[in-house]
Amino acid sequence: MRAVGRSMRHLRQPALLPGEHVRPEAPAANCVIDRAIGTLAGVPPTRRRQDVSWLSTVVPDLQILLEIGHATRGMSVTARGGHLIVARTDEHGADPRFRLTPLGAGAYGLSLYRRQRWEPLPYQGTLQELAVTMNNDLGAWADHWS
């Protein structure tokens, strides 16, 4: 038996453009069309660094906290790359010892500079708590090495 109606052969096909040998195909019904804007469809947006322009305002506070402690007395604090770098300066120049990374809500994470890289430590807290930690638990790293 023959089906009533027209078959796919009888539908009008789009004309070929000059120089083309293949007829264009319509997208499949189950095909998902990405409606991305720009040239990088499907690539997730980059993570933006959080704004840390305020970080230099807490440098004097941390500097005072370090001067109170015995092991951290004489250390310097600089804001660099979104972190607070605590270093000891001697005749050879600055020697970074600790890095405080803002975590949000007044909390910071603590890292130790060891073997030419930063190693995260399991300490986090306020500036005051971490200054006490650097003096007590990590006093050997903060003290003079000469």
State the assembly state of the protein chains.
single chain
Give the termini separation.
101 Å
Show unreliable segments. Answer: none
Radius of gyration: 31 Å
Strand order of the largest sheet: 1-2-3-4-5
Total beta strands:
5
Computed structural class: alpha+beta
What proportion strand? 25-35%
Molecular shape: elongated
Q: Biggest sheet, in brief?
A: 5 strands, antiparallel
Mean pLDDT across the residues is 82
Helix content percent band? 10-25%
Order of helices and strands: HEEEEEHH
Number of helices: 3
Description:
By secondary structure, the protein is α+β, with helices and mostly antiparallel strands. It has a domain at 53-142. Helix content is 16%, strand content 29%. The protein is built from three helices and five strands. The chain has helices at 59-68, 127-135, 139-142, and strands at residues 76-80, 83-90, 93-104, 107-114, 117-125. A five-stranded antiparallel beta sheet has the order 1-2-3-4-5. The longest helix has 10 residues, at 59-68. The radius of gyration is 31 Å and the shape is elongated. It starts with 58 loop residues before the first helix and ends with a helix. The mean pLDDT is 82.
Name a few traits of the molecule.
elongated, alpha+beta, 5 strands, five-stranded antiparallel beta sheet, 146 residues
